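Teaching soon. Invent one.


***
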Amino acid sequence: MIDSIWYWIVIGILSLILMIWLIFAIYHGIRFEAILAFGYIFLILGMSFTLGEYLPIPYYQHIASSLTLLGTLLILLGLLCSNRRWVRRKGTKKLNSFKNMRVFAYIRHPMIFGTVILCFALIFLANSILSNVFAVLAVMCFFLASYEKDSYMEKKYGYPYKVYERKVPRFNIIWGIIKAFRSNNPGKGEKKKEEILYE
């Protein structure tokens, strides 16, 4: 059982941050950011209804712990690598090309996918039906936000992002690894395709 005072302090701080984020996203008209904020709000609500207590089923606890570790790892990798996805022309703000660096070479939205995995961890542990309902709503928001983000990035960056989309899957990291391996190891007699840049 988690100390209730610290539990609610953390929930309160996270809720305040999310409300500020939601207001900012709505004010600037960034739809995918607003949907993400709603997803995190649903996730926080799901955590709130557990009251810091979780199902004492060892099998579920092991699954949830593994999912939490994987989700947290994806989120951290996404945060650390987020500034290495593209390069810009020297002396301008124009995008030159998306550069498939590190985790973004295998999955387009590692942070969103990591949070989806955390939602499933909550579903395994939650001792409340409402918690599960809010976790499912959060997952739906995160999936919708990923589609909206792709649309937003296409409008903002144009052709280079479309090339990147064709190379890297949205969530299927296993297929992303396979595609990256194939592109780095072309078959006999095949010429490795050069990355198409936005001119």
The mean pLDDT is 76. The first helix runs from residue 4 to 28. The chain has seven helices and two strands.
